[in-house]
């Protein structure tokens, strides 16, 4: 019998797509780190790179609860407490309804995910989304008619939400935030803004919204969050009640896991491997199909 090349072990249909991806996650991340090291400032090599390598070996995409993790990145798991606590009610809003926005909204709205939210003392009450992209907003409304409302304007979304996700294209961020600020729709101490725009900076978002620093965050995640798979990156950390909003960290833990990044440098370094996952898995799939195995 002809022996199969070792390479086939990674792409064989006998191995599930999930286990195939898991087995390649660490080498992909290590290769990525090796590629970006020359572009990092020399001062970062001794502190940031070892931590990223350690985090790569503890990375488990479908079970985001590593036994070891770098000291400057914190990660917690959902906890169940025997005593009942008042539920923190979430009114979520999405400015922009693309793939990532619809994935987060889906995860929040799924009935079987409500148990995980409740275990973290959270409860979803409503989701408001802008119409664009219309195909995705309509699909959310059709799937979760009792929870999702499609709005015609960004102002309507913000006025009916407490937790607002900014999911527009980078070139539209400034115009959207300026319009909302001029209309005075932001409620200080009540609204929390979470930007999923990869190019956004937390300090700039604070300035453009006039929201308190502990109510403005940047977040990066991938579409599998819709199924409570994979981790979200969050900057700055929200778990400290004195400087952040613990409910936000608890919510992301309930939706699959969260890694908190204390600085822009840490966030940018952690974003790169995550941004490469989609294209890397696409290459793997196309190679498998081309080989016909």
Could you characterize the architecture of this molecule?
This protein has 293 residues and is α/β, with parallel strands linked by helices. It is globular, with a radius of gyration of 20 Å. It has an 8-stranded mixed β-sheet with strand order 3-2-1-4-5-6-7-8, sandwiched between helices. 43% of the residues lie in helices and 14% in strands. It has helices at 8-11, 17-36, 42-45, 48-57, 99-109, 114-119, 134-143, 154-159, 173-182, 202-209, 246-254, 264-291, and strands at 88-95, 122-130, 148-151, 163-166, 192-195, 216-220, 232-235, 258-260.
- First-residue to last-residue Cα separation: 16 Å
Query: What is the N-to-C order of secondary-structure elements (H for helix, E for strand)?
Result: HHHHEHHEHEHEHEHEEHEH
Helix content: 40-55%
Structural class: alpha/beta
What shape does the CA trace take? globular
Point out poorly predicted stretches: 1-26, 56-69
What value does the Rg take, in angstroms? Answer: 20 Å
Main β-sheet description: 8 strands, mixed
Lateral arrangement of strands in the main beta sheet: 3-2-1-4-5-6-7-8
Helical run tally: 12
Number of DSSP strand runs: 8
């Amino acid at each position: 019998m002809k022996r199969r090349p070792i390479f086939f072990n990674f792409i064989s249909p006998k191995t599930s797509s999930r286990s195939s991806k898991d087995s390649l996650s660490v080498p992909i991340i290590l290769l990525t780190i090796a590629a970006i090291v020359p572009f990092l400032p020399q001062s970062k090599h001794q502190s940031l790179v070892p931590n990223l390598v350690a985090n790569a070996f503890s990375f488990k995409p479908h079970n985001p609860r590593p036994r070891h993790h770098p000291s400057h990145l914190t990660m917690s798991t959902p906890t169940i407490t025997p005593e009942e606590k008042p539920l923190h009610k979430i009114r979520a809003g999405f400015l922009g309804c693309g793939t990532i926005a619809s994935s987060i909204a889906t995860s929040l709205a799924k009935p079987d995910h409500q148990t995980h939210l409740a275990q973290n003392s959270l409860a979803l009450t409503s989701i408001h989304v802008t119409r664009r992209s219309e195909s995705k907003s309509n699909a959310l409304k059709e799937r979760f008619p009792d929870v999702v409302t499609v709005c015609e304007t960004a102002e309507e979304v913000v006025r009916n939400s407490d937790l607002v996700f900014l999911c527009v294209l980078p070139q539209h961020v400034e115009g959207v935030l300026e319009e909302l600020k001029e209309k005075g729709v932001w409620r200080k101490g009540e609204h929390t803004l979470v930007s999923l725009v990869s190019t956004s900076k937390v300090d700039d978002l604070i300035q453009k919204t006039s929201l308190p620093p502990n109510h403005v965050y940047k977040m990066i995640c991938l579409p599998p969050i819709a199924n409570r798979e994979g981790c979200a990156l969050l900057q700055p950390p929200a778990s400290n009640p004195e400087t952040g909003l613990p409910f936000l960290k608890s919510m992301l833990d309930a939706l699959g896991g969260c890694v908190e990044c204390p600085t822009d440098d840490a966030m940018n370094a952690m974003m790169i491997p995550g941004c490469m996952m989609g294209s890397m898995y696409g290459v793997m799939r196309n190679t498998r199909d081309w080989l016909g195995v």
